[in-house]
Amino acid sequence: MTTEEILWNAAFENESTPIDNLYDYNEEQAMERYYEDKELFERYAEYFRHAS
Which stretches of the chain drop beneath a pLDDT of 70? Predict the structure, then answer.
């Protein structure tokens, strides 16, 4: 194998990631924050109504 082939293979391996490894932890945390905020808003809706 030539150096050019090794570099080409390494570049291809870095660019192609399996679909199973595409889990986004930031998206999960954002969804958790959204539902926590939604739950708090529903729980304290009467206090927020007086403020607006």
Answer: 11-21, 48, 50-52
